[in-house]
Amino acid sequence: MKMKSSKKKDTLDEFLTRAEDLNNGIASITDNANKLKTIQKKVLAEPSQQERQKLLATQNDLIHENKIVGRKVQKQIKEEQQKLTKLGRDEALNDINIRNTQIQSISRRFLDIWTEYNNSQLEFREKTRRL
């Protein structure tokens, strides 16, 4: 007789799919941060007020998108960390180690990218104050 479990078992493949989604979100943040750096350089060098306003609008759109994606990624990382702590002895030690390593590396990568993004925003603000 098979017992039906009320909880669906979280497989390693499902976890790795979610980890890939997190990495895609981080890649999106990285791309936007690089685009922002380019736009910020153009804003600082642009003599025309009208063109500068267009660039600033584009910059604000990218910042807004980064905030949304950043919150989503941060929330998913926290959820994965909580799931990992809830995993009991049911999971194989290898699975737990793989999940732990993935979560730590994703978390570290997110933190590095987000710190770089924030630093570039601060530098841009300082440079615009000098103008």
How would you characterize the overall build of this protein?
- By secondary structure, the protein is mainly α.
- It is built from three helices and no strands.
- The protein has helices at 12-45, 49-86, 93-130.
- Helix 1 packs antiparallel against helix 2 and helix 1 packs parallel to helix 3.
- Residues 1-6 have low confidence and may be disordered.
Question: What topology emerges from the helices and strands here?
Answer:
Elements (H helix, E strand, L loop, with lengths): L11 H34 L3 H38 L6 H38 L1
Helix pairs in contact: 1-2, 1-3, 2-3
Please give a handful of descriptors for the protein shown.
single chain; elongated; 3 helices; mainly alpha; disordered N terminus; 131 residues
Write a compact overview of the structure shown.
This protein is mainly α. 84% of the residues lie in helices and 0% in strands. It is elongated and about 65 Å long.
| Unreliable runs | 1-6
Mean pLDDT across residues? 90
Radius of gyration: 20 Å
Helix content: over 70%
N- to C-terminal distance: 76 Å
Secondary structure: number of strands: 0
H/E element sequence: HHH
Oligomer: single chain
Q: Strand pairing plus helix content: what structural class?
A: mainly alpha
The total of helices stands at: 3
Biggest pleated sheet: none
* Percent range for β-strand residues: under 5%
Question: What is the general shape?
Answer: elongated
